[in-house]
Amino acid sequence: MKYGFFDDERKEYVITNPQTPFPWINYLGNEDFFSLISNTAGGYSFYKDAKFRRLNRYRYNNVPIDNGGRYFYINDGGTIWSPGWKPVKTELDKYECRHGLSYTSVKGEKNGIEAEVVFFVPLNSWCEIQKMKLTNKGNKTKKVKLFSLIEWCLWNAEDDQNNLQRNLSTGEVEIHGSTLYHKTEYKERRNHYAFYYVNAPVQGYDTDRESFIGLYNEFSHPDVVVTGKSKNSEAHGWSPIASHCIEVELQAGESKEYVFLLGYVENEEDQKWESKGVINKTKAKALINKFDTTDKVNQALHELSIYWKNLLSIYSLDSEDKKLDRMVNIWNQYQCMVTFNMSRSASFFEVGIGRGMGFRDSNQDLIGFVHQIPERARERIIDIASTQFEDGGAYHQYQPLTKRGNDAVGGNFNDDPLWLILSTTAYIKETGDFSILEEMVPFDNDESLAKTHFEHLKASFYHVTNNLGPHQLPLIGRADWNDCLNLNCFSKDPNESFQTTENQTGGSAESVMIAGLFVVYGRDYVELCRKTGKKNEADEAQKHVDNMVKAIKKNGWDGEWYLRAYDFFGKKVGSQKNEEGKIFIESQGWCTMAEIGMEDGMCEKALNSVKEHLDCEYGIVLNNPAFTEYVIEYGEISTYPAGYKENAGIFCHNNPWVIIGETLIGRGDQAWEYFRKICPSYLEEISDLHKTEPYVYAQMIAGKDASRPGEAKNSWLSGTAAWNYYTITQYILGIKPSYDGLEISPCIPKSWKSYRVSRKFRGALYEISIDNSAGVNCGIKELKVNGEIIKSHIVPIQKAGTINKIIVVLG
Ligand code: BGC
Questions:
Q1: For 152-158, what is the mean pLDDT?
Q2: In what order do the strands lie in the sheet with 712-715?
Q3: pTM above 0.90, yes or no
Q4: What b/e string do you get for 693-702 counting C-beta neighbours within 10 Å, with b at 16 or more?
Q5: Measuring from atom 11 of ligand 1, which residue has the nearest CA?
Q6: What is the 8-class DSSP label of residue 680?
Q7: Is 160 part of the annotated catalytic residue set?
Q8: Is pLDDT of 410 > 90?
Q9: Looking at 160, 206, 416, 483, which residue is catalytic?
Q10: With pLDDT > 70 as the criterion, what percentage of the chain qualifies?
Q11: How far apart are CA 749 and CA 770, in angstroms?
Q12: Which of 53, 379, 555, 629 has its CA 20 to 30 A from that of 274?
């Protein structure tokens, strides 16, 4: 491969050429402290919240791309280079970056010196470790100078960029040997500081950026590195940095290792100071003490690998296709965990200041990781539900630091409430823990309004039925899942946000997508009520679901496919009658998932229409024909050039909905073809076109109407991760957690002969072999549990601790 390859054994993607078609990145950290790191060591770290607790500065949308990071420089007799190629960009004799599970190693070699840095965030610790190993591969003694560099962000990443009249005068540091402390604003309202440490004596340091780099120089050739001499500068205002200088002598064949540590500390109000103006370093010293030797660091790395081994042992696939195995077993699960941690807040495309945790996003993300960390999934569900309003509506997002909802990116998205039913039922099916329904959960973060979590689900359900339009379909509100279908917005002013503006009221725009969503999760709600003995509520809710099915069949069907919506004026959206945007993917996905009109062939017809109008070489586009003009009554969707984003881009998040629809009508070959088209491991060969990482999904791939169809954008933070994982594992491979056991219902290509899945579920292990010598798409001829044939397709819950052999013969 041109840029790298998968090393499945080590669960790594190995990059062999630093000039990837876009920075290919990784995430470090699993709980509170996180870092983003590119294949050339660009990126930044933050504590919990990428907006409010940013540790180091990063320059988005810069030239050249990917500017700012944790950089190392080596001055070897005047030749200057960086192990990750950037920022110096001296051509390296060898380069290799290995992105692994929560760690990245970057290795460069030049003139016989090899420098390898392993970056990771240890479990349960608020720091990033950079383990540096320098090796002299030549046959003569060498003396080199090693410089480190990070540039501090003044905590609030937004303010850091905007408020320069203040910021240039606030920076403060403290210097103590090999530890450089950043304490801007600590003396007033902050109780936190950061530090950068190395476990060796230093020959010099710098903490002032301009002294280190030189006002008219660049990151690539800082003054100090070029001259080989630190200036021991102390920052007062301007831009504080932290840089160490270590002079290293290496005999032929010798290696030396150093531990650099970027740490974050919070102190109690009465514990802030050691003496007047001198910060209390007790916690910093304790953190340093945890990781100040290579042995301690290696142990922490080992613990991290055990952590991941356990997480990935819950679902693993052994099929005839390596590309599929590596997605299911490693990368797709890994991406799901990252989306759990970040929602849509911080990637190389999300600047970490715009969006916190999305209500709908976080609920959906949960279906991708609930099997791995059910306790944290439970906590997340409760956090999300706590921001819900009493009428079932929701803030569209909350900040992770405060866990309080805010309407910075709008509210009144009428699909939001329903996703809470998805996440909660997924959690209970996985764990059997019905007690979550009894937990008291506030509304709008107000404890005095707390009710049981079940009441939150009820509020979600009735939020839809209390907000129906003239066709008995759900009112769309600000928008549904498609943030850009803004049917109540009518914006003429480029300074208005499509998501927060409502310029006209009194209309009754309705969403057929929410209608389908309601039928799917409304049925789940009914089932949950029955399971918990709420018969009357179940009967009552079922009537609403039945009514919705009727309303869709009557008012949501266009003849060959499901309509998308009714606009403000009651006109059809997504109909043969429209000039552009005749058909949309979302309602085809949700109404087939809800099996609306299955008995009358509606599902099959709709899916055939998807194939005919929306499918293309690189995936299924969102709508067709693409909008070529701004349609004021539709909003943002028609602002994008044809083929991008919500205007006929391949918005990967929604492709799985159609794939699930295909499995429900038994078309395993078609389902698989769609799955493969957007699955990153199959796109590695076309990296020059695809651009983003071949190990994670991107939010969008340019559609057939774009100028470069197949070009992807916005990788990593997308609901695509969870939905594809859910679809491949539960609907194609067909191993589904349910209240009463593991349901087995594969829907695969006819050509697959067999595969095996090992699944841990409710404390027992299920080793499942699927035999498809009959060459069918679906249908179970025989299912044996530990040698005994059972009639049902649900393998009953086995005793915790047992290992169970499940043999499934398709036919
Ligand atoms: C948002 C999702 C939304 C999708 C489609 C994403 O950027 O995070 O909430 O459903 O776009 O508009």
A1: 97
A2: 650-651, 698-701, 712-715
A3: yes
A4: bbbbbbbbbb
A5: 483
A6: G
A7: no
A8: no
A9: 483
A10: 100
A11: 13
A12: 53
